[in-house]
C-alpha cells in the first residue's frame, strides 16, 4: 500500500501550483494599490483647488458687476424729465438724480469719496455730507457722460450704458 499512497501524494503535489514569487506578487499588488490611492487623492485635491479658484473668480466678478448694476438701476428708477444732473461733489463730479414730489425736491447723489463710490440722499441744494453716505462699491474711478439719450457710467469695474426714456438737460 505504501507505493500507492506515495503516488497519491505525488499527484496532489503536482496539482498544487508552485508558490514561487507569491510574496513578491502580494507586495507588488499592495504597492500598486497604494500608488492608485495616492494618485486618486492628488486628483481629488487638485479638483477641489481648481473648483475653489473658479468659484472665487466667479464670486468676485459678480460682486464687481453688482455695484455698477446698482448705480444703473438707481438711474433707471428715477428716469423722468430733467431727473439726471451733474454737480460738483467732494472729489469731482457727482451724478445727481432728482426727485420732485409733493413734499419737496430730493436728490440722490452718487460720487467718489475716499476710494469708494457712495450714495447720499438729501434735500435739493443741501450741503454734501459724505460721512453719512452709503458706500456702493470700491473704485478709484467714477466718470459719467450723457449723449443722445444714453448715460454712460464708468468705474474700475467697467462701463455701463443706461438708455434714458426721458429728455434730460445737461448731465
From TrEMBL:
Domain of life: Bacteria
One Pfam family in the UniProt entry: DUF4860
Protein name: DUF4860 domain-containing protein
Amino acid at each position: 500500500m505504501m507505493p500507492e499512497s506515495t503516488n497519491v501524494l505525488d499527484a496532489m503535489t503536482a496539482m498544487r501550483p508552485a508558490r514561487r514569487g507569491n510574496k513578491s506578487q502580494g507586495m507588488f499588488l499592495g504597492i500598486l494599490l497604494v500608488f492608485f490611492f495616492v494618485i486618486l487623492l492628488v486628483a481629488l485635491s487638485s479638483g477641489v483647488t481648481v473648483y475653489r479658484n473658479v468659484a472665487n473668480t466667479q464670486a468676485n466678478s459678480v460682486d464687481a458687476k453688482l455695484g455698477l448694476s446698482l448705480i444703473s438701476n438707481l438711474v433707471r428708477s428715477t428716469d423722468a424729465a430733467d431727473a439726471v444732473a451733474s454737480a460738483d461733489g467732494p472729489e469731482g463730479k457727482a451724478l445727481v438724480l432728482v426727485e420732485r414730489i409733493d413734499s419737496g425736491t430730493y436728490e440722490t447723489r452718487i460720487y467718489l469719496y475716499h476710494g469708494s463710490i457712495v450714495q447720499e440722499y438729501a434735500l435739493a441744494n443741501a450741503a454734501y455730507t459724505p460721512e453719512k453716505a452709503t458706500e456702493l462699491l470700491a473704485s478709484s474711478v467714477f466718470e459719467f457722460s450723457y449723449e443722445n439719450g444714453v448715460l454712460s457710467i464708468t468705474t474700475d469695474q467697467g462701463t455701463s450704458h443706461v438708455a434714458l426714456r426721458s429728455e434730460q438737460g445737461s448731465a
